[in-house]
């Protein structure tokens, strides 16, 4: 059993590293040792875990699925193996720098940090909310939330929840202008559009089968998702919103979901941290609480 656990541990480190050489440095072994361990696992599972080239290694889809199972199992084992009295959680201290989109600040980040502050008062929480794509490694970010998977070997990312994108409007607006019969009908209705602050261009609305539609004559343009939701609640326009924002209002009847059969597949909400070797306890504490908070967001089924 010890041998099998060690093979899985090597696989986890390799998956969270930029190369087998980088993984070997972290594990205190040789790149050849990492390669042999991965080959043994590939023979055991009958699947390729990494695509190799002379320049890089890239985890396969099967490898990603295995990693999702291996990581929590190893973390649980490490927690169980820790001797009594060795838990230093109560004395964790230092700064943890966090980033997330504005729409997730009060909804996910704040509840997570409230629990961190109560349990670990020695941790300083440095929060930077932004919808701008930034270089989190260069900026020293420790923990972040991202919509959509990050295929970047410099990061460890765990899926915490699914996010749906319903189209909604207030009942009084629907009473006034009616329910759109199809996507094309949106062109004649008042709608909102979100501004991509990275490019200055509007974000398109997303639908099933990869279809996109960008409003050409929106009633409201905003660079803030809560402003879009406010416009929808006020009966100003139809909006496409993340379900963690809209779900409570749909449940209460303040917003009505339309064109449900045209909605795109759910997107992932991921909590991530840069890969910088062993994880400090303070970062682990924040990372774990962020996973719980994102996983607890309101959702549509």
Automatic annotation (TrEMBL):
An example Gene Ontology molecular-function term: DNA-binding transcription factor activity
Pfam families tied to this protein: HTH_1, LysR_substrate
Keyword annotations of the record: DNA-binding, Transcription, Transcription regulation
Superkingdom classification of source: Eukaryota
Domain HTH lysR-type residue range list: 5-60
Similarity comment: family membership: Belongs to the LysR transcriptional regulatory family.
Protein known as: HTH lysR-type domain-containing protein
Classification of source organism: Eukaryota, Metazoa, Ecdysozoa, Nematoda, Chromadorea
């Amino acid at each position: 059993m010890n041998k099998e656990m060690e093979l899985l541990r090597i696989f986890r480190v390799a998956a969270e590293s930029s190369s087998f050489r980088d993984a070997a440095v972290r594990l205190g072994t040789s790149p050849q040792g990492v390669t042999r361990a991965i080959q043994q696992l590939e023979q055991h599972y009958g699947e390729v875990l990494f695509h190799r080239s002379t320049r890089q290694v890239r985890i396969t889809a099967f490898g990603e699925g295995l990693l999702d199972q291996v990581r929590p199992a190893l973390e649980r084992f490490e927690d169980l193996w820790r001797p009594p009295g060795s838990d230093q959680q109560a004395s964790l201290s230092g700064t943890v720098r966090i980033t997330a989109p504005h729409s997730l600040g009060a909804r996910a980040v704040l509840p997570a940090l409230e629990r961190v502050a109560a349990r670990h008062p020695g941790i300083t929480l440095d929060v930077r909310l932004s919808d701008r794509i930034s270089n989190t490694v260069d900026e020293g970010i420790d923990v972040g939330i991202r919509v959509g998977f990050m295929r970047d070997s410099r990061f460890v990312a765990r899926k915490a929840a699914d996010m749906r994108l319903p189209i909604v409007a207030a009942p009084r607006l629907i009473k006034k202008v009616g329910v759109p019969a199809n996507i094309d009908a949106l062109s004649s209705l008042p709608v909102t559009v979100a501004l991509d602050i990275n490019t200055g261009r509007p974000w398109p609305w997303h639908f099933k089968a990869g279809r996109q539609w960008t409003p050409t004559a929106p009633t409201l343009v905003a660079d803030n998702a809560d402003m879009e939701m406010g416009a929808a609640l006020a009966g100003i326009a139809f909006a496409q919103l993340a379900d963690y924002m809209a779900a409570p209002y749909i449940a209460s009847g303040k917003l009505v979901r339309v064109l449900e059969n045209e909605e795109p597949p759910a997107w992932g909400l991921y909590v991530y941290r840069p890969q910088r070797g062993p994880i400090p306890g303070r970062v682990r504490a924040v990372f774990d609480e962020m996973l719980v908070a994102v996983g607890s967001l309101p959702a549509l089924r």
